[in-house]
Amino acid sequence: MIRIAAVGDIHMGPDSRGVLRPAFETLPDCADLLLLAGDLTRHGTPEEMRVVAEEVSGLRVPVIAVLGNHDHQDERPDEVTAVLRDAGVTVLEGEGTVLDVDGTRVGVAGTKGFGGGFAGRSGGEFGEPIMKEFIRYTRRCADGLRASLEDLDRQGCAVRVALTHFSPVPDTLAGEPLEIYPFLGSYLLAEAVDAAGADLAVHGHAHAGTEHGLTSGGVRVRNVAQPVIRRAFAVYHLEPGGDRGAGALAEASR
């Protein structure tokens, strides 16, 4: 059994220093790794990310993250990424990483992702150049996610997880205003997950959304934005070799 802890949208700043550390220190008792699903800061400053780094530095489980839109606000993504990496966090964008968990190869593929909407109500690569670039950027994110998941499969990973900030499905947005769905995620991310295969897809971003969802291909999706899960992290149990998206997932609160 692989135990995956995950949380997103913790939006930390100087006044929240130390808030999550006590809970994170219990991770070795209940999880094999921690996924951070973006929006780790409020405004994307290195100072804020250093607070996050202090929360996760030296934990006895691997920590893997993607950035969120808030982490881009100050337009210094390379700097905030460096802060996390200096603290030992693996930060993904269009790439994957492989962990050995008690002899089981666990792969995580990550991208921030972007918006555009969902089947039947989505933007397209048509019209003004800026609109085309909007959707092409999302497609590049999705293509990177798909390629990373496929590479993890070639590397023999028994468990594969897709980690994004933006949502791949509308299910986990239930509770958000319908008008903003196109800015909360894209069906292109789900297409990438279904095409390459995964055991679980984890995202954040939708603070008023719902935890549970499913891609059209049957992959379980979980919105781990902290305002949704209402705890320091959620824990998901994956059985290596289980049927992907069908009964291989158990869940625990923490």
In short:
This protein has about 250 residues and is an alpha/beta fold. The protein is about 25% helix and about 25% strand. Strands 4-3-2-1-13-14 form a six-stranded mixed sheet. Strands 5-6-9-10-12-11 form a six-stranded mixed sheet, covered by helices on one side.
Description:
- By secondary structure, the protein is α/β, with parallel strands linked by helices.
- Helices cover 27% and strands 24% of the residues.
- It is built from 7 helices and 14 strands.
- It has a 6-stranded mixed β-sheet with strand order 4-3-2-1-13-14. Strands 5-6-9-10-12-11 form a 6-stranded mixed β-sheet, with helices on one face.
- The longest helix is centred in the middle third of the chain and has 26 residues, at 129-154.
Helix content: 25-40%
Number of helices: 7
Distance between the termini: 17 Å
Output the radius of gyration.
17 Å
Number of strands: 14
Largest beta sheet: what is the strand line-up?
Answer: 4-3-2-1-13-14
Overall body shape:
globular
What order do the helices and strands follow?
A: EHHEHEHEEEEEHEHEEEHEE
Strand content: 15-25%
Poorly predicted parts: none
**Which class do the helix and strand fractions yield?**
alpha/beta
Most strands sheet: 6 strands, mixed
Mean pLDDT: 95
What's the helix and strand layout?
Layout: E1 2-7, H1 21-24, H2 27-30, E2 33-37, H3 46-56, E3 63-66, H4 77-86, E4 90-91, E5 95-101, E6 104-111, E7 117-118, E8 121-122, H5 129-154, E9 159-164, H6 187-196, E10 200-203, E11 212-214, E12 220-223, H7 226-229, E13 234-238, E14 249-252
Parallel strand pairs: 1-2, 2-3, 3-4, 6-9, 9-10, 10-12
Antiparallel strand pairs: 1-13, 5-6, 7-8, 11-12, 13-14
Helix pairs in contact: 3-4, 5-6
